């Protein structure tokens, strides 16, 4: 493209076409300035007129030609932009920091598994070890005092651990403490306890010479029978108690006591009259004294059972040695 005085030839052509309508007007202007007709028809003169007109247009309007389009931002232009000041950056950085701190401080509850509930039966291995660590009846009693697992759903009951000679060869095991036993903290101290004392006296056995305990060590509500769960939870403690005493004879008083130790569902009348091996001892069964208070017809069978017990006691050479009962 050719230029003349900084203006392209295309611009001349474009301007020339636009200005043809103005030529006559320019001629009239120059004619008024006393130009001759020959000068008006001279090409050089006409070109001079056009240049004069273009110059006038450039001074009054924007230059004729292509209108420059806005340029795209370049890297150099971006680099030329002033960098944000520290005061402008601080709010954004501070907001991001606060958001991050809040996210870190927020508890991640969806990642935390609920703590598992503790099942009392799941502690059996640890319980066995703890019971074996009890080397005396005093240590076992202290351990039972702290054992929530031994309690029934009756609140504020007292531990009825057992009482008697810790080296006894004869161990009597009842079912559960009653109201009087719970109050005194000793087994068989109520009406049934008084009857038991008389029965033992009939075969010349003093309560101080033997040991007496129960399947349960806490009183159940309304003197009800111990539940299967209560019996299962209490049995390991009683077994440890038996192992520490090491009796030669065990007398179960009542159906609950007999079925728990022998792991049987048989009726009491079917379990009477025999000796069963149990943890190094010989075990026999008779009626509970409370049953005798309700049904006097059971007294004869009980008398037969305790006579058999006394005979076995003497045959095994149990201590202490007892005076003849007949």
Describe this structure in words.
This protein has 326 residues and is α/β, with parallel strands linked by helices. The protein has 2 domains: 3-60, no CATH class; 123-315, Uracil-DNA glycosylase-like domain (Uracil-DNA Glycosylase, subunit E, 3-Layer(aba) Sandwich). The chain contains 14 helices and 8 strands. It has a 6-stranded mixed β-sheet with strand order 3-5-4-6-8-7, with helices on both faces. Helix 1 (9-32) crosses helix 3. It is rod-shaped. The protein starts with a strand and ends in an 11-residue tail after the last helix. Mean pLDDT is 78; it is low at 1-12, 29-36, 60-81, 86-91 and 102-122.
Strand content: 5-15%
Low-confidence stretches: 1-12, 29-36, 60-81, 86-91, 102-122
Task: Describe the main β-sheet briefly.
Answer: 6 strands, mixed
Number of helices, counting only DSSP H or I runs of 4 residues or more: 14
Q: What share of residues is helical?
A: 40-55%
Number of strands: 8
Q: What is the CA–CA distance across the termini?
A: 151 Å
User: What would the average pLDDT be, to the nearest integer?
Assistant: 78
Class of the largest domain, according to the CATH hierarchy? Alpha Beta
Biased composition (Polar residues): 101-111
Domain Uracil-DNA glycosylase-like: 161-307
Biased composition (Low complexity): 73-100
GO molecular function: 4 iron, 4 sulfur cluster binding; metal ion binding; uracil DNA N-glycosylase activity
Summarize the structure.
The chain has 326 residues and is α/β, with parallel strands linked by helices. The protein has helices at 9-32, 37-40, 43-60, 75-80, 86-105, 124-132, 137-145, 179-184, 191-202, 228-245, 255-262, 268-271, 289-294, 299-315, and strands spanning 3-4, 7-8, 163-164, 170-174, 211-214, 249-253, 276-278, 281-286.
């Amino acid at each position: 493209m050719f230029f003349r005085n900084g203006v392209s030839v295309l611009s001349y052509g474009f301007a020339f076409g636009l200005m043809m309508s103005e030529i006559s007007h320019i001629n009239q202007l120059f004619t008024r300035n006393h130009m001759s007709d020959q000068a008006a028809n001279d090409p050089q003169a006409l070109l001079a007129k056009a240049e004069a007109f273009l110059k006038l247009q450039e001074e009054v309007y924007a230059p004729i030609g292509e209108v420059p389009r806005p340029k795209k931002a370049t890297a150099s232009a971006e680099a030329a932009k002033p960098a944000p000041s520290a005061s402008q950056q601080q709010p954004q950085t501070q907001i991001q920091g606060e958001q991050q701190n809040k996210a870190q401080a927020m508890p991640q509850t969806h990642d935390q598994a609920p703590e598992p509930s503790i099942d009392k039966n799941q502690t059996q291995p640890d319980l066995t070890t703890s019971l074996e660590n009890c080397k005396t009846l005093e240590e076992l009693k202290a351990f039972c005092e702290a054992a929530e697992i031994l309690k029934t759903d009756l609140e504020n009951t007292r531990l009825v651990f057992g009482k008697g000679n810790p080296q006894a060869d004869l161990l009597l095991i009842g079912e559960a403490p009653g109201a009087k036993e719970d109050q005194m903290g000793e087994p068989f101290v109520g009406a049934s306890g008084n009857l038991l004392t008389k029965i033992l006296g009939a075969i010349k056995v003093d309560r101080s010479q033997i040991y007496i305990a129960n399947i349960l060590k806490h009183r159940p509500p309304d003197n009800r029978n111990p539940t299967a769960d209560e019996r299962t939870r209490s049995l390991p403690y009683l077994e440890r108690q038996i192992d520490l005493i090491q009796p030669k004879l065990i007398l179960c008083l009542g159906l609950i006591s007999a079925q728990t130790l022998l792991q049987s569902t048989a009726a009491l009348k079917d379990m009477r009259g025999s000796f069963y091996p149990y943890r190094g001892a010989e075990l026999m069964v008779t009626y509970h004294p409370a049953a005798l208070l309700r049904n006097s017809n059971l007294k004869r069978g009980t008398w037969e059972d305790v006579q058999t017990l006394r005979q076995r006691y003497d045959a095994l050479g149990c201590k202490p040695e007892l005076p003849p009962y007949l």
